[in-house]
Every structure is written in C-alpha cells, then in structure tokens.
Amino acid sequence: MTTYEHILVETPAAGVGLVRLNEPRTFNALTGPLMHELMSALEAFDADEAIGCMVLTGTPKVFAAGADIKEMAQATPVELMQKAFIARWEKLRTLRKPVIAAVSGYALGGGCELALACDMIVASETAVFGQPEINLGVIPGAGGTQRLARTVGKALAMEMCLNDRRLTAAEAERFGLVNRVAPVESYLDEAIALAAQIAARAPLAVRLAKEAVNMALETPLNAGLAYERNLFYALFATKDQKEGMAAFLEKRQPHWSGE
Ligand code: DAK
Q1: Mind telling me the catalytic residues?
Q2: Which of 54, 65, 133, 158 has a CA-to-CA distance to 253 between 20 and 30 Å?
C-alpha cells in the first residue's frame, strides 16, 4: 500500500477503505499537500475492486479545522483560481463509491465542507460543525453555503455562514446534517460497521443509488424521477439483479458478483 505523509490509510474491515487525516499539530488544516494525498487515497480506493465503501476521519479531537489559513493568507485570486486548488476539492464529487465521514471534534470551514461533501456523516458526541470564515473576512468557498442551505435549510445556513453559529453533534442530528451520533469511544467503529454493511451489498446498485440520491439535489423532480427510472432499468442488465431476485424467491442469501 502507498505510504503518505499527511494521512493514514488502512482497510479495517472487509470492503472498507479508511483514510485518517493525520496532522494533529495543525488541527488537520487542509493544506495543498494533505488534500492531494487525501484525494489520491480516495481515488485509489474508488478504483480498487475489493473496496465497496470508504470512511474519512480525523482524530477524536479534530476532524479538520479548515483550509490552511497560513497557505491562503497572502493568496491572490489568480492563485486561488489555479487549477490544482479547485480541482483537488472537485475530485470528491467524482467518486463513484460512497464515502462516510466519521467526525469527532472540530469540523470547521473547509473541514465542515469536506464532511458535507461526503455521502453520510457519523458524528461523535464531541463533534462541532461550523463555517467561521466570516471571522476571516471571507465566506465558505467549498460548498458550505450551498450544501448547508440544502441540508439544514436557509434560516440556519444563514446564521452559520453570517454569524459563525456552530452546531453541536446533537443539533446536527436534529437538523438532519448527520446520520447518527455515537460516543467518542465508538463513533469510528460505528462508521466502519456502517461502511462494511454497505460494502457487502450489490456494488452496482449501491453506486447507482448514490448517483440517484445526489441527482435529487441537482434537478427538478420530473428530471430526477426520469433519471432514477432509467438507472432502475439499467440495473436489469446486471447479474446481481438476477441473483438478488432469484435469491429472494429461493429463500436464500444472495451472492453478489458486482456484475
Ligand atoms: N489553518 C492553519 N492552521 C490552523 C488552522 C487552520 N485552519 N486551524 C488551526 N490551526 C493551527 C493553529 O494556528 C495552531 O498552530 P500553532 O500556533 O500551534 O502553530 C494550532 O493549529 C492549534 O490551534 P489553536 O492554538 O488555535 O487551538 P485552539 O484549541 O485554541 O482552537 C480552533 C482550535 C480549531 C477552534 C482554532 O484553531 C480555529 O478557530 N481555527 C481556524 C478555524 C477556521 O477559521 N477555519 C476556516 C478556515 S477557511 C475552497 C476550498 C476550501 C476553502 C475555501 C475554498 N475552494 C475549493 C475554492 C476553505 C476555507 C477555510 O476553511
């Protein structure tokens, strides 16, 4: 397995690829080199047939405190618009397999946006979600305003982005930002267990289900329904559809081939 400087990579359960952000001294500030490694590791898992679901985590104390303020402080618009900076973040959207964020401690700024860009979030009781960019004289730039407005609604998104309102784990669960909250001792195990369950399912159906749910955020209902229907039809070309339905009728467990 490739070794990295800023992250740790492992496969803690069958079918699960785990990436840990590993710069605790700077609260996992999302530097260019760290983002480059993170995206490379996620892309490698995405391309690995043995992996069905990924988990992205930090340490129990901090998920990530945002983009590296030192790196950004003197940047010009032209530098920020340079392909590598944007492209690194955009890659997350191109992953076909699901990614679960396991968040404990601070998820601030780009750290909150990174979690929001994942498909699900399992939080520890100590998790704090916030967009404090307003304190730096800027606004979120990696999806915070858009994804928060779509998940927690306009009222709370406004408060978070305009006035640095931070959400506790319990609030994040209440407002639909996270899937579940667990004690700090077990949140990562819960995220890995959830990922293992998903990884054991029919891989193509999982990928298309992710694609269809994401499409709901991109299109009007009519177009989304048509998109979903076409993906549904397409799955009837897979061996796993035949296997899944045969297994049901024969009252046995299905054996997925991923074909
Ligand atoms: N960047 C750089 N260093 C950071 C950092 C950050 N975001 N957050 C923390 N650190 C560093 C601190 O500088 C300190 O380093 P030393 O002084 O020890 O060398 C160390 O981590 C510990 O921090 P503190 O001493 O401040 O520790 P505290 O426990 O007192 O506070 C904190 C922890 C996380 C609450 C605090 O450090 C904090 O508020 N951090 C900044 C949070 C923040 O403002 N985040 C938003 C950054 S802006 C885009 C993509 C991404 C973005 C934008 C566009 N595109 C693709 C277009 C993202 C932007 C952002 O995230």
Answers
A1: 67, 110, 113, 133
A2: 54
